[in-house]
Amino acid sequence: MRTPLVTVILPAKDAGEYIGTTLETLTRQFDDAAAVKLVAIDDGSRDDTGALMQQYAQRFPHATVLRNPTARGLATARNQGLVHVEGDAFCFLDGDDWMQPRRLEVLVARLRELECDFVRTDHVTVTGGERALIRAPHPWRDRVTSPRDAILPENESTMVDYPYAWAGLFHRRVIDSGLAAFPEGLFTAEDRPWIWRLHLKAASFAVVDAPALLYRRGVATSLTQVRDRRQLDFARAMNEVISVVEQDAQAERFLPKVVWTALALSSHHLVRARRMSPPLRREMRAAIRDMLGRLPADEVTEVLGRFDGPRRRVLARILRQTGRAA
């Protein structure tokens, strides 16, 4: 039996309403089903997600279905999938998203032609009946470059602000270099430290055009929609980003970007926290306060001076508590 051209890592929890569409589109990526290895992880689902995974696994010559009796989180489930990668290329796919036909065939060809560590793509958001193209924030297409050169400037959207693990394809040397794994146990924001480590340590990447990945927004079970304690992982994820950058030989070059990102995301999460229960809101504020307290005070002051008034007001109290002027 031929070695698969690409391994698709597909973790899902309670995605039975959508995952049939997700899995069906994987059957339309190549003429030969053996070109794909499916690694599906049922992360503690209580619906028919696991049964659908098993059903579709029979349509692929290469398939592995794993089941976690209780949910371990997206980061851990993706890491479980990495152990089963075969072939030279792999990608991630979430259980409520889907791919246009031939997407993977195009991406495998582009990865080979460009001979880089990973390729990234645009994606399409789907909100009800509305679709919108979201472009990867990189000025060049089909040009191989250093991932480090796609991190700055700090006050503009760059590739580390486009952390979606499913928006691309990766060569297996990313696994061999220890850059593919996610921080264990994170339920949200797991892609933030992952994308920073990837861009700081991988050798080469490119942004390419390909048939679209469609990202379903507004799904009630999505962790972007819930407001329970799993959202507290945002601060832990940003602490990991800070640690990754602090250990880099060019930390001073990239710290302004980390500060800008941490402040911007903290403002967003502080506003969202207003709809949490009071105890959880206090935990969120304490976690953000401790995380912001790690940032260099002079950089915080400089970045904050370029923020708009509403964001400065949201951050004012918590920054005073950290000893940073707002």
From TrEMBL:
<dbReference type="InterPro" id="IPR001173">
    <property type="entry name" value="Glyco_trans_2-like"/>
</dbReference>
<dbReference type="InterPro" id="IPR050834">
    <property type="entry name" value="Glycosyltransf_2"/>
</dbReference>
<protein>
    <submittedName>
        <fullName>Glycosyltransferase family 2 protein</fullName>
    </submittedName>
</protein>
<dbReference type="Pfam" id="PF00535">
    <property type="entry name" value="Glycos_transf_2"/>
</dbReference>
<feature type="domain" description="Glycosyltransferase 2-like">
    <location>
        <begin position="7"/>
        <end position="143"/>
    </location>
</feature>
<dbReference type="InterPro" id="IPR029044">
    <property type="entry name" value="Nucleotide-diphossugar_trans"/>
</dbReference>
